[in-house]
Structures are given as C-alpha cells and as structure tokens.
Amino acid sequence: MAAIFLVSLYLFGATDAYQLLKLPALINHYIEHRGEDPSMNFISFIHLHYQGKIVIDADFQQDMKLPFKTTNTDCCVAMSVATVVPTPIEIKLQTPEQPQAVHILSNDDVPLLLSAASIFQPPRV
Fold it and tell me: pTM higher than 0.85, yes or no?
C-alpha cells in the first residue's frame, strides 16, 4: 500500500499526471457545449478544444482549465536528459594474415620404452 502511495505521489507531483484530476472539468465543459449544440459529439468537442487554433471567446478561462491545455511548471520537478549525438563510426575490414605454418618434428625412431608411455605399468602382485 505504501508503494502505491509513493508511486502516486511521484506521478502526480513530478509529471503531468495531475492533469488527469481535471477530467471532471472536461466532462462538465462537454455537457455545457452539448447543451448549447445538441449535435456536437465528443470527438468534435475534443477537436474544437485541442486540435484547432486557440480561440479567445466567452469561455476561454474555462477552456484553459481543461486537462492538458496548460502545464504548471511550478509543481513539476525539472528533469533534464542529456542527449548524445552519435558520431559516425568508420569500420575497415581487412583480410586476416595467414599464420605461419608450425612444423612439428616427430621421430618415430625413438624406442617405445624411452617414451612417457612406459611409466604406466599394470600393478605387480
């Protein structure tokens, strides 16, 4: 429960999520517009208030109280993100050099008794 409270406190304090608290004002304003023009649907209401140019009319102050119309920068935590512009990387591919051949000298003339295999013998009774 404490985690939900802390996340909510952060979201409503440091982001624009507090604008969601203005949704009742949006619904009330839509009902007012619907009372003036019964043919207006919600999409045209959103288009009128969010898509078009800002129109200063009789209910301009009420329009500015709608969610996401203005931002309150006093309550928000200023967060800056460093942007990194990637520099182009030049990749040069070269054919690998062939390793020099290693010659192993083996002498098959050495008797087996002198080799290391003669150390291992079966146990004696």
Answer: no
Please report how many Cα atoms fall inside a 13 Å half-sphere around the Cα of residue 43, on the Cβ side: 0
Q: Token pair of 18, please? A: 């507090």
Q: What is the pLDDT of residues 90-101, one digit of tens each?
A: 888 888 888 887
Question: Cα separation of 91 and 95, whole Å?
Answer: 13
DSSP 57: -
Q: Is the dihedral of CA 43, 44, 47, 49 positive or negative?
A: negative
SS3 content of the chain, % helix, strand, coil (to 5): 45, 0, 55
Distance CA 23, CA 49 (A): 14
